[in-house]
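Q: Please design a sequence for this.
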């Protein structure tokens, strides 16, 4: 996909040229699931699929947003946006968030084009938010950093759209770099780029999931309660991820709080081990990925039969080093890491077997770590 995609859609929609085009990447999380909102460490990467937004100053006194993926066109006041319950809330919410950062957001016309699939766990919403923030920052002549734009997208999703997510998705979409994974400390927002040159197979199970309708909010509440109980014993703890697995075991938390807390604390250790391995050898040990998936399946209980099937089938293909679900779970995508030949074989063989088993047609992509947000050349 090139900037011409959004540019052509803009010209068709608004009968004119955009002032600029910005884009941001989707993401996969290599390891560190459900840690961002628990103050832990995560290791995502930006992928080669992107969301573009072509934009210009509005020709009248209101803002308009159109999407090639949605029929409905959003109209709102960028200076005082109100939640509408439609897709353009992600765009309007970013305008509202930037306004709170004292960015003078003008009324604008925007056309969105994306090849990041929605509902698959590849952060299509974060890509839209960060692309919007990058575009509006440039349109307004402001100079916010990419990290500030990522925070604006995070606030839009949490406070305007109403989805209580952590910072990982927006940070990965904004700050990703080619051949690098992004190590994020979610409690401090510190980041570092870690070399990662491997190919990754993304397998979309075609089971759509929504953080609104899944057990995501319940898991957050369970983690908060587990932290509250642990902090009575260990008042020095700053968040759930700062506890150790030994602390969790010794606390004898009630079910299911013990399992949720054990996943968070053990997964945080796995992230640190994965980062150390990448720095030393350039690869992530496959057993870390498999252990992460087992924990998400058994302790956090956010996997599905379809995700489990893929991980099991991938593990039998020679050259596949490891596999796990990625994203929040409850549907969406899984990943596998291995040789390019092994990933090509998995992408060729597994979809047909999967469709026979589940009656759904999956999608697959092989990707590498890609660049995050940027302003593109106008089409």
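A: Design:
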């Amino acid at each position: 996909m090139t900037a011409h995609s959004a540019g052509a859609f803009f010209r068709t929609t608004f009968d004119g040229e955009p002032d600029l085009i910005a884009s941001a990447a989707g993401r996969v999380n290599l390891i560190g699931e459900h840690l961002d909102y628990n103050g832990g460490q995560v290791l995502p990467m930006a992928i080669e699929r992107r969301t573009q937004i072509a934009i210009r100053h509005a020709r009248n006194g209101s803002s308009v947003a159109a999407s090639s993926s949605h029929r409905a066109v959003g109209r709102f006041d960028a200076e005082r946006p109100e939640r509408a319950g439609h897709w353009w809330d992600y765009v309007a919410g970013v305008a509202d968030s930037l306004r709170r950062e004292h960015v003078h957001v003008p009324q604008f016309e925007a056309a969105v084009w994306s090849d990041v699939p929605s509902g698959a766990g590849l952060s299509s919403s974060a890509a839209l938010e960060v692309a919007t923030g990058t575009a509006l920052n440039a349109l307004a002549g402001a100079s916010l950093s990419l990290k500030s734009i990522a925070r604006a997208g995070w606030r839009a999703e949490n406070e305007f759209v109403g989805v209580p997510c952590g910072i990982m998705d927006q940070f990965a979409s904004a700050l990703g770099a080619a051949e690098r994974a992004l190590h994020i400390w979610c409690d401090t927002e510190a980041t570092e780029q870690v070399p990662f040159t491997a190919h990754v197979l993304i397998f979309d199970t075609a089971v759509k999931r929504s953080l609104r309708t899944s057990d995501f909010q319940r898991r957050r509440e369970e983690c908060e309660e587990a932290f509250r109980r642990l902090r009575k014993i260990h008042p020095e703890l700053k968040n759930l991820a700062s506890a150790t697995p030994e602390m969790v075991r010794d606390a004898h938390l009630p079910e299911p709080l013990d399992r949720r807390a054990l996943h968070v604390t053990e997964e945080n250790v796995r992230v640190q081990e994965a980062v150390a391995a990448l720095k030393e050898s350039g690869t992530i040990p496959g057993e870390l990925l498999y252990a992460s998936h087992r924990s998400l399946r058994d302790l956090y209980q956010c996997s599905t039969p379809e995700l489990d099937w893929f991980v099991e089938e991938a593990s039998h293909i020679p050259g596949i080093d490891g596999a796990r679900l990625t994203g929040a779970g409850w549907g969406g995508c899984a990943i596998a890491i291995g040789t390019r030949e092994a990933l090509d074989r998995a992408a060729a063989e597994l979809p047909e077997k999967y469709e026979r088993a589940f009656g759904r047609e999956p999608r697959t992509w092989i990707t590498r770590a890609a660049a995050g947000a940027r302003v593109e050349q106008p089409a």
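Q: Thanks. Anything notable?
A: The chain has a mean pLDDT of 95. The radius of gyration is 21 Å.
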